Amino acid sequence: MRESFVIREVRATTVTVPLEAPLRHSNGAHWGRFVRTIVEVETEDGLVGLGELGGGGSSAEAAVRAAGDLLVGHDPFQLESMRFKICNPTASLYDNRTQIHAALEFACLDLVGQRLGVPVCDLLGGRVRERVRFASYLFYRYAAPSGAPAEVRTPDELVTHALELRERYGFTTHKLKGGIFPYEYEIDCYEALAAAMPGDSLRYDPNAAYSVAESLRIARRILPLRNDYLEDPTWGLGGLRQVRGAGIPLATNTVVVDFEQLATNVLDRAADVILLDTTFWGGVRQCVKAAGVCDTFQIGISVHSSGELGIQLASMLHLGAVLPSLGFAADAHYHHLADDVIEGGKLAYVDGAIDVPTGPGLGVRLDPDKVTEYAELYRSLGGYRYDRDPGRPGWYPLVPNQTFADPERALSPEQLYGESGRWLHDSAMPGTAG
Ligand SMILES: [Mg+2]
User: What gap in Å lies between CA 83 and CA 60, rounded to an integer?
Assistant: First the structure.
């Protein structure tokens, strides 16, 4: 019946899509752009399914093609056997293809949905909601080369930025990405956000930059605010366990990213909320399975963002659509993008939410002109080092970090960029990061 519905070819194209401004985080920065590899899986009968992954650029392209060679002749309906063909647990010790598998799984779900004429969420149990709510994702930012948007560093700048996002997109939940500055300063900023938007909920994510003792002080200080949770204040299940009990729920997207870790967290609770990432976990279906475990043990869930374009965003929307216990707004970097590679441009936020696509498969298609444009931009700019900060040349963090950025130090575009708009401290590094 499905003789012609087998994989003929797997293609990979790396693109660079500009962000409105460079985003700072505890390990370094997103240098004003996202580098993502677009995966196209084509069947013998000419259907094309879409996937996406980050963190590799041209090396990700090569890895996807190599994995794709293993799938020629594979039936996209056979998702479990594909998982073992690509990333069985012992082979993965030598050749970790978890995120590559995730991109291939998005593409196969897209193919199956197109073949059957149903959206991906209908393959996962069916939607229990039509729209997925998102949090505003607030970053300390460097100014863009033109000076607009301007730097976001002080409490006033952060509040202004948050209110603009709230007005533009309708967000009523706000996540502050931190771990850049000493925690006392960042909590001043967080409290300023709470004061400016008293009815909204908040979450703070310093990406494990602080010690257990600092995390306990953070938890106690922000306890009176409308927190959803405190996300990864410190490193490790053992670290989080020591911060639990301070009265604020803890969330993680760093140390519960597979079933072994989830089992450990069930047996000896460290995190109260698991942020499910469709790439980190190896696909949408793994996240649905993990959500079932979480529901069983009354562990909270939400949807994590690892820096997506529209294809991965669609995977997050279909995941969010089918999780009955999704009580928190999802995370997305998406509103920081200046553009997208999908037909029709960026998916729209209405009242802080994005509609779950209703078309067959993932419900998004590529805009070939945009793919060409942004593949050329990738070739022109190359990769960037996610774990380096171009405004702090030579610095790298320890865990917990001990050398934070100076909150009093403003950096002008002239101090950051050369005449061409390129970073002054951008050593050549073709093909890396994302
Ligand atoms: Mg996080």
Answer: 18
| Domain assignment of residue 239, yes or no | yes
Query: Based on the domain organization, do 61 and 90 belong to the same domain?
Result: yes
Looking at residue 263, which CATH number applies to its domain?
3.20.20.120
304 is catalytic: yes
Catalytic residue (choose from 25, 101, 174, 177): 177
For residue 149, whether the previous peptide bond is cis, meaning omega lies within 30 degrees of 0, is yes
**Backbone φ and ψ of 185, nearest 5°:** -65, -45
Q: How far does CA 179 lie from the centroid of its chain? A: 17
204 plus 317 within the same structural domain: yes
Domain end: 363, 395, 421, which one? 363
The 10s digit of each residue's pLDDT in 257-296 is 999 999 999 999 999 999 999 999 999 999 999 999 999 9
Query: How far, in Å, from the CA of 64 to the mean position of ligand 1?
Result: 26
Whether 391 is in a domain gets the answer no
Distance from residue 76's CA to the centre of ligand 1 (Å): 32
The predicted model scores a pTM of 0.97
pLDDT, tens digit (0-9, with 9 covering 90-100), for 295-307: 999 999 999 999 9
DSSP string, 203-223: EEE-TT-S-HHHHHHHHHHHT
221: left (phi over 0), alpha (psi -120 to 50) or beta: alpha
Q: Are strands 33-43 and 7-18 parallel, antiparallel or unpaired?
A: antiparallel
Tell me: do 87 and 111 sit in the same domain. Answer: yes
Tell me if residue 177 is catalytic: yes
pLDDT of residue 427: 58
- Domain of 57 in residue numbering reads as 7-121+370-379
The total number of structural domains that make up the chain: 2
166: which 2 tokens? 């709230």
Co-location of 339 and 374 in the same domain: no
Asked whether residue 395 is assigned to any structural domain, the reply reads no
From 74, 175, 304, 333, active-site residue: 304
Distance 347 CA to ligand 1 centre (A): 23
At residue 171's C-alpha, the angle toward residues 166 and 175, to 5°, is: 100
Q: Which residues are CB-neighbours of 254 under 8 A, at least 6 positions away? A: 207, 208, 232, 235
